[in-house]
Amino acid sequence: MAHISDLIAQDIEAYLKQHEHKSLLRFITCGSVDDGKSTLIGRLLYESKMLFEDQLAALEADSKKVGTQGGDLDFALLVDGLAAEREQGITIDVAYRFFSTDRRKFIVADTPGHEQYTRNMVTGASTADLAIILVDARHGVQTQTRRHSYLVSLIGIKRVVVAINKMDLVGFSKDVYDRIEKEYRAFAAQIGLTDILCIPMSALRGDNITDKSDNTAWYAGPTLMEHLETVQIEDDLQARPFRLPVQWVNRPNLDFRGFSGQIASGTVRPGDRVRVQPSGRDTTVERIVLSTQDMQEAVAGQSVTVTFADEIDCSRGDVIVAADAPALTGDSFDATLVWMSDEAMATGRSYLMKCGTRTVGTTVNAIEYRVNVNTLERTAAQALALNEIGRVSLLTDRLIAFDPYESVRDTGSFILIDRLTNNTVGAGLLHAARSRPRDLSWTRTDTSRAARAALKQQSPLLLWAGAGIDANKLEQKLMSIGRHTITLPAATADLPRVAGLLLDAGLIVVIDAESAQPAALASALPAAERIELAVDAAAPQASLTGERLSLPSAAADETVEQVVEVLRRAGRVG
Question: Some GO term, biological process aspect, for this entry: which one (predicted)?
């Protein structure tokens, strides 16, 4: 069995040279809560002899102090380093670990099993070549097993190991193993996963991790380590069209101007004809520079600087591509989006979209459907909540160069960033460009109130914020979910007319008042376009009846949250 090489003690230089040329496998562990992901990685680190004596001593001490194995070594503690993880016995953050054997180097990402941390799992899976999906033999295929498998398929990981763990707790039953394998393969076939290996194991006891277990004499397949060392990971990125997203314009002096970045796919050589996108200008590669050395060829995965034979405009965010096989360009897209924020996604709201090295403004124009990861059913949706997955249409404020995610991951993936908080709120995959009219002079444009409201992805509405309602906080909350709104004082001259004009513009109008809605306003505006907000100490809960929303007494922030929640459920503010 492959362990740490004896060359380390005999000839360190020979070992380092051998280590340099080993292939690298990146993989993740995922699955449902408490299926043994961290324990499996800890066992792999232990069996591959990648732990120092002080780490083993600390593991023994921690196992006695906070371990869950009654004083025995708790291998999960090698990975779960956060205090909250050790207290709860769960994984919260993505933990990356490195280990190696005589045959291969490994980078493993331990990802959380809890649904609320699905976004962390997506992060870990984004660079993986293989996924180990753990299944507790006692419970079988669970909701998170399906969710993570669907995400693995979505992200494009083709090789999957189904580690049917804790077989020692079911007496190493072949019937249990066969039932789980059959159930999982049936689900995997629906989502396009075909390269699957199922292994019965006990991560805690070491069965079928590095050595064949006598407890599973009926299993004829490889151990986990054998498979990890021998699975073919060669990708065809080098055979794909050349793509180099420009990270930096390298200008150290007046005599050198190059364009630096990591090659996403393909191969490039001096003399190759290339194109800068999205501008579309063609030129020829003059030099390829790595550090201070000129190269005759550079391939996918290498970070290089290229220079051009012609002086053409190229800057950060552009993509240098093969002239005879260019990327696509567009500003309207079909995409799959995984929502990663506690605040639900709002259609029509402006976000930042980072695709490769380019950052542009974008809006989610519409949600085509939401995917139920348990049944794979597609359902209509007005919004995407935390961890939900949907097919959406996106609009950007300028052209970008891209490839369908299925062709090139790096130029076909993106993240969405909240403009106010700068938090990453979504991650997605681009599939195709949509067309939208460019020359509006040839288009007959509807300028009605309904058309203006549709452009803003909302319905015009007047909200009379009476006593106990903070109008400014209400406006801020509406803006935070992407609504177009404005606040007016109740004393505004000719209020009915001004409010009517703002409603014609498709806005949500908040009236800052301390009194009840006047009859003059009620008679001037349709009932369907106005709602009076009132705090009623006797109201047991917030409720909308006709054109009046009654709310119980509460703090200002809580009252505003209740107003928006009730209006959203009623479909009045999207």
Answer: sulfate assimilation
What residue segments make up the domains of the chain, in order of their start? Answer: 7-230, 237-322, 329-433, 449-569
Contact between 522 and 548 under an 8 Å Cβ cutoff? The reply is: no
- Architecture per CATH, 7-230: 3-Layer(aba) Sandwich (3.40)
48: annotated binding-site residue?
no
Q: What is the pLDDT of residue 51?
A: 55
Q: Is 32 annotated as a binding residue?
A: yes
Q: 566 among the known binding-site residues?
A: no
Torsion, Cα 419 423 425 426, to 10 degrees, reads 90
Known binding residue 37? Answer is yes
CATH of region 449-569: 3.40.50.300
Which overall architecture, per CATH, does domain 329-433 show?
Beta Barrel (2.40)
Q: What is the separation, in whole angstroms, between the first and last Cα of the chain?
A: 60
Is 365 assigned a ligand-binding role in the annotation? no
Report residue 321 as tokens: 């591509």
Q: In 3-state terms, the chain is what percent helix, strand and coil (to 5)?
A: 30, 30, 40
pLDDT in tens, 317-330: 999 999 999 999 99
Q: Where are the alpha helices (DSSP H) in 67-223?
A: 83-88, 118-125, 143-155, 174-191
E strand or H helix at 252: strand 248-253
